[in-house]
Amino acid sequence: MKTVYLDNAATSFPKPDDVLSAMINYQQTIGASPGRSGHGRSIDAGRIVYETREILSRLFRIGDPLRIVLTKNSTEALNIVLKGALKPGDHVITSSMEHNSVMRPLRWLESQGVELSLIPCSPRGELDPGDIRQCLRHNTKMVILTHASNVTGTIMPIEAIGSLVKEKGDILFCVDAAQTAGVVPIDVQKTAIDLLAFTGHKSLFGPQGTGGLYIRKGLEKIIDPLMTGGTGSRSEFEAQPDFMPDKYESGTPNTIGCAGLYAGVSFVLERTVESIRTVEEKLMARFLSQMADMAGPVKIYGPNDAFKQTAVVSFNIDGISASDAALHFEDHYGILCRPGLHCAPSAHRTLGTFPGGAIRFSFGYFNTNQDVDTAVEAVRSLVIR
Q1: Smallest Cα–Cα separation from 148: which of 325, 334, 308, 381?
Q2: pLDDT category, 80, cuts 50, 70, 90?
Q3: Alpha-carbon distance values, 30 to 211, 340, 363 (Å)
Q4: Are 279 and 365 in contact (CB under 8 A)?
Q5: Tens-digit pLDDT profile for residues 248-259
């Protein structure tokens, strides 16, 4: 039985061949730490890290590669932003569709005196920018939003929200692009994004343990580091460097991961984000159109529109738990998917699926029409049982 991988919202699979080749090449021919020595291999390692910043800056239309902090995932990037910028008495606005990588740091900060406004989204996971305007206060420090839900795939109107926030001048706009980096075009200048958190192992096709954070020029002065320690720079001082990106990059970096991430982003840029998006839209449209005749016993959450969401769809089947359905799909059809709450309980409360959750299929660039048809057949097998 063929395996049908439909868990790309968790991590993309397979990876392009060049990703593995780049990682093997680093380990076999370089293997040294960047910025920690003066020999040739250390310099070569440093070049890999810098070139990774460069290619990421091309992808997100960032002028200066040194504005990108390399992290191990988007969760670390978001924690740098939230715990580094927000202080007791500050007010922050977010939505009800956020992942726990946003909600958990915010709830902790709330317990420390940060004021939190949670904007309710529609039952389809959609956000009205006007609702954010109504929540603005004199002490609003930040608006932080997911670019697309990891549960419904709903794409948020970040350009409109960025313009709204920019009108206020001193409010920070942070975007969690874990689900969109590499598959939805992102221009930090056009969308007035001050802080962009992203992960490398999803639609950037990099390995796990990679990600990053874009910080607009000047904001490093008001955002504290999450961790301090050795950076390979200013080693004569025991105080943490105050410049980008060293201020936020203590400890030996994941150079082998950077090698893989560079190759993954190269893959994206060679094909273009727009063409990758088109492939995923077609897969999603094929799935949704075939699911239409099961609309009674199958409840699909979100926009139910391939052009208004990423290639992520969550659903439930009458009379069957999400976990039982997922087990059936794997045992009988080789489908690997994710049931449950998807680390986003607030989103599931919005959808009315808490605490049972839902089944999530997430398609990716390497899926085929046959994979989609198998997925539809698998759902139909439970509907007509």
Answers
A1: 308
A2: very high
A3: 22, 42, 35
A4: yes
A5: 999 999 999 999
Residue 308, pLDDT above cutoff 90? yes
- 333 and 266 within one domain: no
**Among candidate residues 246, 271, 296, the one where a domain is terminated:** 271
Q: Do 204 and 137 lie in a common domain?
A: yes
**pLDDT of 105-137, one tens digit each?**
999 999 999 999 999 999 999 999 999 999 999
174 contacts 194 by C-beta, under 8 angstroms:
yes
For the stretch 207-227, pLDDT in tens is 999 999 999 999 999 999 999
**What is the number of domains present in the chain?**
2
Among the listed residues 37, 13, 51, the one whose alpha carbon sits nearest the alpha carbon of residue 258: 51
What CATH number corresponds to the domain at position 342? Answer: 3.90.1150.10
CA pair distance 59, 265, nearest whole angstrom: 8
Domain extent, residue 307, equals 4-14+273-383
| Selection from 67, 153, 97, 283 nearest residue 59 by Cα | 67
Characterize the bridge pairing of strands 211-215 and 335-336: unpaired
Strands (E), 104-231: 115-119, 140-146, 172-176, 195-199, 211-215
State pLDDT tens for residues 255-305: 999 999 999 999 999 999 999 999 999 999 999 999 999 989 999 999 999
Cut 0.85: pTM above it: yes
Cα(155)–Cα(203) distance, integer angstroms: 15
CA–chain centroid gap for 322, Å, is 24
Among residues 271, 293, 311, the one where a domain terminates is: 271
Same domain for 258 and 281: no
Question: Average pLDDT over the chain, rounded to whole?
Answer: 97
C-beta separation of 200 from 23 below 8 A: no
Q: Tell me: do 227 and 283 sit in the same domain.
A: no
pLDDT at 168 over 90: no
Residue type, position 46, single letter: G
CB 133 within 8 A of CB 294: no
Task: Copy the structure tokens of residue 185.
Answer: 């075009």
Bridge partners, 94 (sequence order): 118
Q: What's the token pair of residue 254?
A: 């994941």
Same domain, 135 and 278: no
Euclidean distance between CA atoms 241 and 245, whole angstroms: 9
